[in-house]
Task: structure prediction
Amino acid sequence: MKLNNTVAIVTGASSGVGAATAVKLAAQNVKVVVNYARSREGAQSTVKRIEQAGGEAIAFQADVSDNDQCVALVEKAIIQYGQLDILVNNAGTTTYVEHKALGLLSDDVWQSTLGTNLMGPFYMTRAALPALIKRGGGEVVMTSSIAGLTTNGSSMAYCASKAALNSLTKTLAKAIGEHNVRVNAICPGLINGSWASEGWGERWDDVVAFAEGAAALGKVSTPDDIADSIISVITGTDLMTGQIITIDGGFTIN
Result:
């Protein structure tokens, strides 16, 4: 897809990968709807970065685990910019629970994790589809995780949600490909950013050392690395769909 004069929604764009993706899209003349669930300040910071660089963006609050709020988010993009071409389903959540601690993996943790990480991308894609079809097709990119491909992750619920998201990516790609809508997923390994470092807390340095030691390239990614990967999928061949793309520095190479 050529990015000039297109419109994108990036969910979970108040920080990290979402913010980096929104800024990089805007730098290529994409009008961006910066979605956030809680951090209005972070979303406004992303918008400010875009505007200071000469781009155009707005912030809009919506919890993607709620279908009605997803519909409202898409409607806002159409009202504001008149079209929608790109949907980046980046919003995600986790609760750090040791895998062996089954008793701590409560119903609330499961529901919260699956609601944001799995149902959210489905709700958003379903809400966006009519607008994408109206434009003659478009791009949907999921931010997944190698947690959906391995047994490594912040909790069993997180691993399961990302494995399900990878499956959803493929089934959506097959279901809506006739409309020229492409659906792909990026699976990052460990990302050196505030989201992961705050979650792992005192164990962070050990987690980074382990990931770097196990990676073929000897390093972990940054939010900018993953944003670049997302944009490369959007701007690459229009024949790619249903693909699960691992960006982990070679951590999962067997």
